[in-house]
Amino acid sequence: xxxxxxxxxxxxxxxxxxxxxxxxxxxxxxxxxxxxxxxxxxxxxxxxxxxxxxxxxxxxxxxxxxxxxxxxxxxxxxxxxxxxxxxxxxxxxxxxxxxxxxxxxxxxxxxxxxxxxxxxx
Length: 121
Hints:
This protein is mainly β. The protein has strands at about 5, 10-15, 20-25, 30-40, 45-50, 55-60, 65-70, 75-80, 90-100, 110, 115-120. The termini are far apart.
C-alpha cells in the first residue's frame, strides 16, 4: 500500500521560510510526477509546483521566484522550499504523486494527508 507523508508545516512570520517534505512509502515500481497543492481558506485546492521524474519543473505564477520544488529519487521524497512567505500563502499543503505500481499497474494518483502552513502578518 502506497502512502505519502508530509512534514514541515508550521507557523511563520511574513518574510520567513519553511521547507516541506513528502516521502512516499510502500511497495511500488516508480514515481512519475510529484507535486505540491494547497488549499487556502475559502478557496479550491490549487497546484503550487510540480516536478517530473526527469526534473522538469512548473510553478504557479504567484510563487515563482519564492518557492522551489525538488526531489530526491533515491529517497522517494519531494521537497518544497518556501521563501519570502506571505500571509496569502496560508493554507493546507498537500503532496501528490503519480505512482506506477508493481507489474506496471497505473500510474495512480496518491495524496498525502496535508500539512498546515500559517503565515502571520
